[in-house]
What does this fold into?
Amino acid sequence: MIRILGAVLAAALLGMTACSGGSPATAAPMAPTAPAAPAARSAATALPARAAAPAPPDTLAGYYAQRLDWQPCDHGFQCARLLVPFSYSQPGGDRFSLPVIKLPAADPAERIGALVINPGGPGGSGVQYALSARSEFTPRVLDRFDIVGFDPRGVGGSKPALRCMSAPDLDKYFETDDTPSDPAQLAALITESKFYAAECARNASGLLPYIGTPNAARDLDVLRAALGEPKLTYLGKSYGTFLGTWYAQLFPGRVRALVLDGAVDPDSSGLDMDINQAEGFEVAFRSFAASCVAKPNCPLGSGAGVSAAVAKLQGLISRANKAPLTNSLADGQQADGSMLLTGVASALYSKSLWPTLQAALTAAFSGDGTLLVELANFLMERNPNGTYSNLADVDTAVSCIDRPWPRSLTAWQAAAAAAGRAAPLFGASILWGSLPCAYWPVPAVPAPQIRAAGAPPVLVVGNLRDPATPFQWAQALARDLASGVLLGWNGDGHTAYMEGSSCVDNAVDGYLISLTVPRDSSICP
It folds into this structure.
């Protein structure tokens, strides 16, 4: 089933886009399971294990008094760890130790301060994102800012880290048919969703109440203090915009500059978000399909209409749910309809992956689902050896607690029907992918009412054909924030900064460096 519940992380693309090789026009489709760069792996394992302070703090003031003990870790980066309490109302209790990584400003004479970054998720590693800073930020920003990434509580290198499901159980969960058409298929979907929730309760019960975004935003302020920054400069992508929005709500007077790229709407209910996101993926796929059918050898039908292309893919997904395609990975994964559709969704995150998607669909229509399965694995951070990062578990845990979800199956069935009408290709799959939240063992927090009154101008960036965070969310967030400024990009793929628009890049850089905001609601070509 598709597990892209609350805006999928941009960091999942760091490996995927590298795999298509060369420019989009000439990229040779390659297996998207290439190993991460050696620098990324060695830096991740070199993070110091010791705490940032000699003695663990047990008061809020003690946490804020930490200073990071930076150690060289790899290729010019420095690494440290930050302590934060499980509960900010009981800071003397258990604590998380979070990995932090920094790429110092290239021009110390022009240095402005630290730029803290987050790639999204929930569950994306800010450490891994920062390791790609030299290609994710312009030289102007790299000259003037230390680029600082961290793994939020429970994520990646966090100690403790949240784990719910074993790798074989996750394989089975992701392969479950998420477009139930009869009572038996619905019963199987319910069983898997209940099992997911029960496994989280069994394996991570001590962490679940403390994983939500409001606590992560408080961690962000402790990090700001530990960096010695009087005010926060921050760039968050995808779910990272929700983290930044919560920061602005809780600490409006401590904001220097916030870039919220690929914005999440804080006011939407969980089910409404799923429907909106499904519509976003539908728009993105239709944009890909329009480009594909205009060329020869398009597997969706050269010269066909976009609606016919959508129908052809629907037919493939339906057939694969009944009889999975071949998968040459030989590790037991099924190339069924759920996995194929997740692979398609994965490739829509970057226009540079469109040639790979075309090759994957060509193979799939010939009976080979291997490349689409590999794309799906990249999205879910499944490693070639069959293990997973904890992205999926954190994504589920945070998403289920950040917003209220209905407990009634009838409400889910009605929402799935609405999603199917709004987005025939992705609607039901995305919505049913959230079903574990109906059985979640920890109550969700009340729906937020976010205004961030008193914060300086906050730059909200949206892509007009963003699959995972539809442009309407950026519009809604800019309206919600008392000082929101909206910048749009008429582009394809997930998020906008450093994705191919010099207009967006220049506007974001000007805001970060000089605090100059673009004209509200302007659209970059």
